[in-house]
Amino acid sequence: MKDTENSSPNSRRDFIKASATALAGFYFVPRHVLGGPGYVAPSDRLRVAGIGVGGMGAGDVRGVFASGKADFVALCDVDDLRAKGSVEAHPKAKFYKDYRIMLDKEHKNIDAVTISTPDHMHAVQAMAAMQLGKHVYVQKPLTHNIYEARMLTEAEKKYKVVTQMGNQGSSGDGVRQMVEWYNAGLIGEATRVYCWTDRPVWPQGIPWPSATATPPANLDWDLWLGVAQYKDYVENLHPFNWRGWWDYGTGALGDMACHNMEAPFRVLGLGYPVAAECSVGSVYIGEFQRGYFPESCPPSSHITLRFKREGKDDLLFHWMDGGIQPSRPDELGPNEVMGDGGNGAIIEGTKGKMMCGTYGANPQLLPTSRTKEVNVAQTEYRVPGGSSGHYNNWVEACIAGYGSKEFERLSSPFSIAGPLTESVLMGNLAIRSYDYREPRNDGSNRFNYPGRGIQLVWDGPNMKVTNFEPANQFVKREYREGWSL
Q1: pTM of the prediction?
Q2: What is 42-169's CATH topology?
Q3: How far apart are alpha carbons 322 and 343 in whole angstroms?
Q4: What is the Cα–Cα distance from 269 to 309, expressed in whole angstroms?
Q5: Where are the domains of the chain?
Q6: Most buried of the four, 184, 204, 349, 351, by CB within 10 Å?
Q7: Can you tell me the mean pLDDT for 263-272?
């Protein structure tokens, strides 16, 4: 059979269907006779490879497989022990430690790839798969920096593949209900948005560990580092706490904003912000002695993004993490929970307000009594199974192919997830600029912090801060030698 990995996503199905048609005059057995009720023909099954299959990756493997229309033929993880559960659940799948070797050897046998690795590896792994014509499911945040997000967004169209980011709330009914309320004019024109999270729930605002250690035998440390510059192994980084270090993670903002900011973004149809500013929590290591830990994300932050809207006033979009929350709306009763307690979003409008929890769940009009009083027409497509149908939403689109009806019903393709991720990471651009420092020219050992107390002006189409050049070093990172996008 001819290798067709660089042809259209439908080519494998088309080849099988064409072959079946050619043989029809010789012998034909109906599909339901061969497989019985509910049988899924091999031509309608998705062959999947998983990159990062422990922890959250194991959940992604289970979710995709539970669709009943996908088979994992290859698995990849730099940690044998973390991968054990997925490997045992899919004994026929070949196991690899290096995704590059897996793609080189297995690309003819796979249609799609799931990617559930630390943030800093998402882009290179997704791009490698997309360049081979493979559909991709990538955990949130889509990428580690703004440039990578833009490149993956463009790659979706270039390679005509089916994509989905792992923010499952985007498939939920809650965000669709909020879209319908807003389009029906129930809160008027949006004027302000607040989103918040209780994350981080890992160490942040701390110095890089001074003590190094020997990597455990089950972990390939060099492969885990990937595009990041080499550092000796330290304990308590893998498999979870990497989230708090800029070399690998994107902090509380990157971890939760693709969940909590997604609903307002979809409801209001937002694009690139035009400006960003921030304030961050501090750790003091002595009297009037503020700690400076530029390798670590801050313990808390408040980001304000500004969005331009044609013919409307600018929209201010507030993000708060580390337990910081906005003031309670007057319309919310004193004993009513705001959001879901630790996380949530509020959209304020000229005629009212609406609120939801994590993933856009439990949407409420304010005061909450309005929620049961109002009935608007259902205009938005509902994903079968809601948030739990997020994986199947992608699997069905992969089988149907790029440009299909199922493709158009994707909840978080890169055309949507990319700009959302860029806006999320714009907040981190402000935080990184806040920590940028320059030595003073007075012979002292003191520093100036020119990125503090300012607003970054953002040229979204060109991915450039126009009023503070040092910030642009954080738009795109330098990969370790031997790695490229």
Answers
A1: 0.90
A2: Rossmann fold (3.40.50)
A3: 11
A4: 10
A5: 42-169, 172-383+414-474
A6: 204
A7: 96
